Amino acid sequence: MSDAPPSASTTGPTDEEIAALDAHWRAANYLAVGQIYLMDNPLLARPLVPEDIKPRLLGHWGTSPGLNLVYTHLNRVIASRGTDALCVWGPGHGGPAVLANSWLEGSYSKTYPDVSRDAAGMALLFKQFSFPGGVPSHVAPETPGSIHEGGELGYALAHAYGAALDHPDLLVTCVIGDGEAETGPLAGSWHANKFLDPVHDGAVLPVLHLNGYKIANPTVLARLPDSELDALLRGYGHEPLYVAGDDPLTVHRAMAAAMDRAVDRIRELQDAARTGGETGRPRWPMIVLRTPKGWTGPAEVDGLPVEGTWRAHQVPLPGVRDNPEHLGQLERWLRSYRPDELFDSEGRPTDQVLACVPEGEARLGATPYANGGLLLRDLPMPALDEHAVQVDRPGTVLHEPTRVLGGLLEAVMAATADRRDFRVVGPDETASNRLDALYEATGKAWQADTLPTDEHLARDGRVMEVLSEHLCQGWLEGYLLTGRHGLFSCYEAFAHIVDSMVNQHIKWLRTSRRLPWRRPIASLNYLLTSHVWRQDHNGFSHQDPGFVDHILNKSPEVVRVYLPPDTNTLLSVADHALRSRDYVNVIVAGKQPSFDWLTLDQARAHCARGAGVWEWAGTEDGSREPDVVLACAGDVPTLEVLAAAGLLRRHLPELSVRVVNVVDMARIMPHSEHPHGMPDSEYDALFTRDKPVIFAYHGYPWLIHRLAYRRTGHAQLHVRGYKEEGTTTTPFDMVVRNDLDRYRLVMDVIDRVPGLGGRAVAVRQEMADTRTRHHDWIRAHGTDLPEVADWTWEG
């Protein structure tokens, strides 16, 4: 234990309460073991036989006793203090423990009435665990009270802080396994306490559970000397409390005292800030829990030590069905918890087991904070007309699309000032991404020291910047999953850092959509800007448009990708995304000055279609199919296609050209593969069945081929996009290097329209010569050709 003085506000548990806590903990341990091993005979009404054992033993025992201890003691804190609480269970495969506790408290049976809180329900609880047609071995969307997918190691603490933001009455406990503590994202997450506002936010109580081992190796933090570990945690800004041991009653008393001290200290810090005027950064408490891995399990198996070693990580007795000695050892293990004291003859938990369990929504498995759709309110979205730009003629006026979007976001931020349920996160790039209008409504969250040169820092700020994409993602996921709204703004190339995290969030949404008790939550919205085509100043390291490819590999019912070509389409797409539920929306838009093509009404109609013909940009007369289709997706590809269309209009006026713009990337897919996909008849009408299609795409060109490979006209599809040719250069040189420029597109048209190559040879040669002239010009002048830099639409 810590040497901090005990709080005067609590007296600690009585002997009777300690006995009740121990009974609950033993019951949870019994249920955890039963889930791993048993498919029948749940109360051991008769000696175990091989047929009682599952044919495949899957699950993880090692972390379960520690998680059961935390759950048991959180119950006491919640019940005795009336605390609103949520727990994020970080250890990857702690499913047996969390399921056991939610069944004991009754929240599991309320969610799944067939798994009743009696012997029949216990048998079903056991059998369904890690069983075909059952539930996963880890904490998952199916688990009541969960917001964190077991196995996504590294993100538990970030999720916990996200959940605590703007929930001032909420205590979020976060159990961090010592394996997880070795990950980079978790190491960065310790700094989240510098962003937690003690006035408007709730509190996070980290519980670092050190049981010594991962799957096969010792863990770093568990092997640090006590003084070094203490210095590390205090350096992170925490006041650690220590609980250690293997004697259950001693550990129960120590854990109860630590919980009381921690919660008392949290309340003191919050009261000092909320009523006492304290403005310094709090040093929040945390608990370090040291218990043996696989505590109370088999001490030895086949002559080898198990409890307290890595051998306890998964299934300590692997050969139970075929090995009579192991079967007998399992039965002795289960009976060591004295189940006849814990469950009555009908299999219901006894009054002693439930003595410290809270009721109703106070139960951890029933808290509405873990089913955020129950708390979600619609965003007060402003009218887009108030923010749209005027477009009298396409391609003549320039705006910075994300700067205009910043005004819309500022209005949303201002409208949610009292309710505090909207945040914008990003890695140090809000102003760089032209969203700094947000600072008119709120500051940047910051609890550490400030200097006179700092700008826009605020203890109650709702813009969150930290140079960790992992932490931004984790905050926002925790925020959304507990019933709020938000947006993640990021440089396009560095969104890949959270690839694994968004994978898990997409899987969470896909699964939760199939659970009627999980209410829809606000979508996870990405704004990817500072994109590949305008990273000419930062160079090759900042050029990667592949996050879109990653997202479009995922569950079609969840993922959406939008490439708005101008300011008003960006506003329309953002409005749609911020209103949506249960999606991951990826919006790619530039921040540099770019041409406006569509009025707001046109933008709304175009975005609703997702893809459509821009009749004003082409030359077809409607009497026949076009000779060629120029398609585009993305702001810079749209500019190049329109410039190419202008060149074709001037040099080859007899050519019938159709211009198609795609905003919603899923529209290219067949409807059978994605809800937004076009039926074949619609796709053929738009792109034709057999005419050449020159497609200028924002990202890697092979993505378009993958999305369209089943279409009738795929053989006529030629895609230009980014092909890993980048450096520090001029903006136009980026498209030339990747053969996406207007001159190359005209050459593609000449090469692919039947019969055009012979009669347009002079035009093709002029286009090639202009590319050569460009190459020489930028090396002499450092700027793009005047006809490129000064181009406007003349249609």
From TrEMBL:
The keyword Lyase applies. It comes from Streptomyces poriferorum. Residues 14-374 form the Xylulose 5-phosphate/Fructose 6-phosphate phosphoketolase N-terminal domain. Coiled coil: none annotated. Keywords: Lyase, Thiamine pyrophosphate. Residues 591-793 form the Xylulose 5-phosphate/Fructose 6-phosphate phosphoketolase C-terminal domain. The keyword Lyase applies. Its EC number is 4.1.2.-. This is Probable phosphoketolase. Its cofactor is thiamine diphosphate. Belongs to the XFP family. PROSITE patterns: PHOSPHOKETOLASE_1 (PS60002), PHOSPHOKETOLASE_2 (PS60003). Pfam families: XFP, XFP_C, XFP_N. It is an enzyme of class 4 (lyase). PANTHER family: PHOSPHOKETOLASE-RELATED.
